[in-house]
């Protein structure tokens, strides 16, 4: 049955949530700067022997504050996730991480250089003295080593050489590094030793961050998993190395998952089960069933594909803002490539659009790789939606969202305008490999689609 169509209000909570959380984040940076000023920081910059140490205190305070914000960005706080979307939070997390790292490096260099200049000691000897004699500094040194390791593995060139599962596990050492680095500020920092109020603020801020991690990264997933008691009902081979996992559970409607969203899944299949995998829902969620579809790769892919019926499943989520709530107009274009069809198939089924209002373009390297095609055809026939399949290899020599055959006959934006009527007035949802999405976004812009009407989520790690 074709879903009822009714006006969709333009969502406002996202913009408001971003404004509020962004203002709070900026406020924490202003507070730590105020702590530095209140302890005579600016005046200390003019003194010969202490200027470097005074500057080090400022860089250390700001680095620690940004480190806290970096942790909070990925704490899975629900209202923050809904406001920003996990892909945007991941980019913020990465930016804050590198910024705080370089400020931390400046802090260490300035402290060592400042004390060495004041005492007339060599830099290496002064570094050793600080680590050994000052309270908390040995812990801080160990935490710094861990943070350096995490940052080194987060550089793109290094990440390409490490499996996602291993990178994610090593990345968790950042939490240990943060915990080890924090005490030395409270035990040695002039701002906190002389001001109980400042120390109470700092403890409260970091305590709230630790509580958010425990509640939303540990407690909430355990509660959701116990509440809904998801188990594997069936694993179905779809095409080549693509599989669908069907899950049954209790009161799944109360999970409030929406088409276009994803969850992180842990299938208790034996060794390696604790590693989480973010996969989109590949059909509109039901009260008694969920499904995700994935391309098997590596050891974990084979393990997931071999999950037996009855296997228990732990979940986090739902996450993501690639939902109907982002729509602004009366018509929609869904564009998918490869395994990116999974959230688009769920949106095709669950969106409250009908007839010529809803169009799907599905790009794949060959007809055999058009995953879930029978389901898509059935949904389109029932709903009156238009589906355009574009199988074929990509063109060589240039980035394009088209097949090589079409790219020889059209420019990227001309093909879009020819395939989809009234393109400029549509909301467009994209999902696929990052280079393909970049080419599709450029074509949409050239075809006159406003940027605010183009919606995607990027999950490259």
Automatic annotation (TrEMBL):
Highest taxon, organism lineage: Bacteria
Classification via InterPro entries: FAD-bd_FR_type, Fe3_Rdtase_TM_dom, FNR_nucleotide-bd, MRET, OxRdtase_FAD/NAD-bd, Riboflavin_synthase-like_b-brl
Cross-referenced Pfam families: Ferric_reduct, NAD_binding_1
Cofactors (names): FAD
KW Transmembrane helix (keyword) present: yes
Membrane topology, record value: Multi-pass membrane protein
Stored SUPFAM superfamilies: Ferredoxin reductase-like, C-terminal NADP-linked domain (SSF52343), Riboflavin synthase domain-like (SSF63380)
GO molecular function: 2 iron, 2 sulfur cluster binding; flavin adenine dinucleotide binding; metal ion binding; oxidoreductase activity
Cellular component terms (Gene Ontology): membrane
Domain FAD-binding FR-type: residue ranges: 225-325
Keywords, sorted A to Z: 2Fe-2S, FAD, Flavoprotein, Iron, Iron-sulfur, Membrane, Metal-binding, Oxidoreductase, Transmembrane, Transmembrane helix
Location(s), subcellular: Membrane
Transmembrane segments: 20-39, 51-74, 95-117, 137-155, 167-187, 199-219
Protein name (Swiss-Prot/TrEMBL): Oxidoreductase
Lineage: Bacteria, Bacillati, Actinomycetota, Actinomycetes, Micromonosporales
